[in-house]
Each structure stands twice: as structure tokens, then as C-alpha cells.
Amino acid sequence: MFKNILIIGFGMIGSSIARSIPKSRKQAHIYAFDKSKDFSKRLKKANLNVSSIKSLDDFKKLSIDLIIVCTPVLQYENILKKINKFNDQSFIVTDVGSTKKNIEDIYYKNNFKFRFIPSHPIAGIEKSGLENGFLGLFENRYSIVCPLKNSSKKDISLVNKFWRSLSMKTEIMTAKDHDHVLSLTSHLPHIISYSLVLTAIKKEKSLNSKLVKFSAGGFRDFTRVAGSDPEMWRDIFLANSKEIKKLTNMFIGELKKFSNDLNLHNSKKLLNKLQKTKNIRNRIVKAKQAGKFIPND
Amino acid sequence: MFKNILIIGFGMIGSSIARSIPKSRKQAHIYAFDKSKDFSKRLKKANLNVSSIKSLDDFKKLSIDLIIVCTPVLQYENILKKINKFNDQSFIVTDVGSTKKNIEDIYYKNNFKFRFIPSHPIAGIEKSGLENGFLGLFENRYSIVCPLKNSSKKDISLVNKFWRSLSMKTEIMTAKDHDHVLSLTSHLPHIISYSLVLTAIKKEKSLNSKLVKFSAGGFRDFTRVAGSDPEMWRDIFLANSKEIKKLTNMFIGELKKFSNDLNLHNSKKLLNKLQKTKNIRNRIVKAKQAGKFIPND
């Protein structure tokens, strides 16, 4: 397995990866590169047994065999260009980005040559920063692996094994399929959450402190999703904007129909709609993907 | 304080009230009336020290001094008519309904005479049924109390004290203000969640099992809200349909603007929007109304 791992972009996800690499493999050395302020000081304080590197230009001295890119997705092109400069087959590159087609396009457009197995471990919390990462974030979650046309079976298997060593399940998918699925299960929920909070902000003056006080009736759940890292999400929205736009329109149509049934006081139809949705929740709970919410903690 | 309490509609909320009434007051006897199948058997099994009554027509034998209505809101009119038959000032009636203006209207329209202090304890989980109630549901949450024009100060104070004895904070509000605030903090989030899940159901065939597997990226949070009791929510939507419709339109406008910024790849504006929303989340956490989410439990 991998001996020297470089994590580029060492925020909540990056540091959770470092924390989750199993102890038996801790002889593997982890390096981290991050542009944020006071990074090396903060890294030291976190006491993670991870070495910071100052520049991406000199990582080759370190015999890295796995690079994991964990920055917002619109920073990838610059980073991958630097990696490609070494024109070297001694390391594999993977990532954690929430969009995959745009990343694949960058690779082909630039005619990159390094071994690249794009990935997306589906796990996250609304807090960002290396201090908020934790061991266990990935446990029992899925990592989607999206090999390129020229990826070798061996490399795919190595990256799969890496995610499984963090207690994840893996699933192979094309970048296109990934973006299609995630636009529904992640990107649309986020654009909705942000828009609801923006609606609430507009109404807030007339509500005074009441918005926060009485948020436990549902609103607070949306603020959690809408509390996610702004730069990361701006990049995701821009990178998958076509799929997101299509789905947003479909969702608006559904909402208008609902509102119309309300207008017509169509009691039977409404009840039927509300009953349908419960079934999906039950399946998510059964698949152990629901997480746990403690309402009054 | 109250000696004999009757809870009408003994589901998740009703049973959580029974569980949360402090022990020092357990000399107070709790009665429950519920139309659901096998109710008395299920109540017995739950071992709550609550007596079931068979019919609302004979509760007067029991010297009840507090009635708490906990049914879906469109059942109120029939129930309150039965209560009014006794034309009696010996008990106070309160409730837990998520809409308040329609309930006030029912009271005035029918020229009811009993002492009525409508309330709404803002607390809930997505599970329903008496078996899912628990001690602690109300802890540190707000209960909104919406007195009628003719409510006496003494009655208002008694009902306030009752909610506080369940470890709640209370706030007095008009029914109109209540419905205005809750349409934003609760009703709109619910109609959005249901509509998102309905959108997902339409897409599901093309996604096979992927919707459930990869729900941890945001979608699962919506299924929790959309997993709430269908009858209860149909009634809320119908009872506050005007406010909800207005807000839904406002929200659709916000979503369209967002989608438009995406279309124009308006990167700066997008980032600015996403940064704005984080602030509200922080305030909810500070006010201890956020609950706690364990992502991988």
C-alpha cells in the first residue's frame, strides 16, 4: 500500500482522512500542503503526526506515492498542472471533489499524463477547517471512484483499497453518472437550503429575534446544510451548473403543483403525496445512511 | 397546579407530555383519549401510568382541570364541540397545534365558552405514535402561548407555568403573529422537503438504488423532515395555506435568482450569497436551538 501520502488542501476533509488512516499503516508518512493562514502553526497544534510542506514545487523530493487533492474544485486546474510538471508515473493522484465531469475534462483538455483516479467520498459536516476533522467521518459511508479511460485495473484497485481502509464502501461509476446522481442527492438540496435561508434573511427584520428562537420546527435543519463551506459550494454549483439548473426547474414545478393542491384544498391528493415520501426515509434508515439527529442537545 | 389532566390524541407529542410531567406532580392523574387501533393495549404496554378513557362524552366524571388537545388540527372543531357541551368553567383547555389562527376562528365562530389558552410547544421528531414519545423532547425548547381576547391573566399564567414545568421556555404571541413566524420557520421548510423528496421519487427509476446509497450528501436531511406524520402535516398546510403560498412564491423567486446567477457564472455574487447564510446558523447554535447531528451513527 501507500508509503508517503500527500494531502493537498488540508481542511475538514483532508484532516479527517489523515486521522482515519489506520494505525497499522501509520508507518506511512503523511504530508500536507495548504495555503491558509498560519497553516503550519495550526497543524502543529492539532498534533496529528502530519508534516506540512511549504511549496508544491518541491514535493518530488519526498517519494510521494499517493496524492489526494482536497481543495475546492475550481482550484484543481492549477494544482494538477503543477503535479503534471513532473511527468512522472511514480505516484497516483486521487481527490475528494463533489463534481467529477469537470475534473475529467481538465485532465483531458490539458493532456495530463499522471496516473489519476478521481474519487468522491460522500461524507461531510457543515463545519470546515482542519480543527473540525475527526476520525470516523467516513465510517460506513460510500466513496465513489470514477476511473479515467486510461486508468489501469491495478491503480483502480489500489485507490479502492485505500478508501476501504478508511472503513468506507466503494462504488465505481462514470464521472457523468456521478454528477447526475449527486446533483439530486447533494447539489439540489444545498441550493434549496441556501435559498431558503436567503428567503428567511429577507423576512428577518419583520420577525426580530423570532427566526432563531423558533427555528426548531424545521428551519434549523436547513441552516445546517446551508452552513457548509461557501467557497467549496460556490465551486460545486459552478462546476455542475447545467445538471443543477435542470433539476432546480423540475423541483420548482413540483413545488408549484403542491402549492396548487393547497390552493384547491385538495385534501386527498395532499395526504397521498405526504404518505409517499415516508417510504424513502425508511429505506435510508434501513441502509444505515441516515445519521442520527438528537433534537434537543 | 393541575390535578387531573386529560390528553386528547395520544401520539408522539401527547405521550412525550405525559412522560415529561415532573415526578413531584405525579400525584396529578393523567388520562388519555385516542381513536387509534388497539390504543388501550398499546398504552398499557408503554407502562406510563396513564389511564385511557373510552369516550369523550363522559370525561366530566373525572374532575379534569386541564385538557390538552394533541390531534391533527383539522380534528379540533369536532373535539372542541364535545368539550363545549359541558358549558363548564372548571377546566382549562390548551393544545399543541402548529397553526393557531384557524383554531381561534373555530372558537369564535362556534361561540364556545370554555376557558381556552391555545399553545404550540415547538418540538418534534419525524417519528409518530405513542411509542416514539420521550422524556426530554421539550427541554430548552420554546412553547408559544396565544391567549384569546377573553383569556384571564390567571389562566394564561397557569398554562405558562405548565409548559415551564416541562422545562420549556414560553413566549406570548397573537395567533396571527404565530402563524406568520411558523410559516417561515416550519411550514415552508416542510413543504420544500416534501417537494424535494417527490422530485427525487420521479427521478428514482433512472437512479436505481443510488438515491438511497448516496443520500448522505444532503438529501437524507430532507427525508427526515419529509418523514413527519402525513395527516398532521396535511392539516397544517391546509390550515395555514395562505401564508404558506405567499412564502412559497417568495422562495421560488429566490431560487430562480440563484439559478440565474449560476447561469451567468456570477462567481462573486454567488460566494457573497453563500457567506451570508452561515451567520444565521451560528446564531441558532449560540441560542442552543440547533440540536445535534451525528453524521455516521
Compile the SSE list and pairings.
Two copies of one chain form a homodimer.
Chain A: E1 4-8, H1 12-20, E2 29-33, H2 39-46, E3 50-52, E4 66-69, H3 76-84, E5 92-95, H4 101-109, E6 115-116, E7 119-121, E8 142-145, H5 153-165, E9 169-172, H6 175-207, H7 210-213, H8 219-225, H9 230-239, H10 241-263, H11 267-286, E10 292-294
Helix pairs in contact in A: 6-8, 6-10
Structure description:
The structure is a homodimer of 297-residue chains. With 297 residues, chain A is an alpha/beta fold. The first copy, chain A, has two domains: 4-173, NAD(P)-binding Rossmann-like Domain (Rossmann fold, 3-Layer(aba) Sandwich); 178-286, 6-phosphogluconate dehydrogenase C-terminal like domain (6-phosphogluconate dehydrogenase C-terminal fold), CATH 1.10.3660.10. Chain A has eleven helices and ten strands. Chain A has helices spanning 12-20, 39-46, 76-84, 101-109, 153-165, 175-207, 210-213, 219-225, 230-239, 241-263, 267-286; strands spanning 4-8, 29-33, 50-52, 66-69, 92-95, 115-116, 119-121, 142-145, 169-172, 292-294. In chain A, the strands form two sheets. A six-stranded parallel beta sheet of chain A has the order 3-2-1-4-5-6. Chain A has a three-stranded mixed beta sheet with strand order 7-8-9, with helices on one face. In chain A, strand 2 (29-33), helix 2 and strand 3 form a beta-alpha-beta unit. Chain A starts with a strand and ends with a strand. The model of chain A has no long low-confidence stretch (mean pLDDT 92).
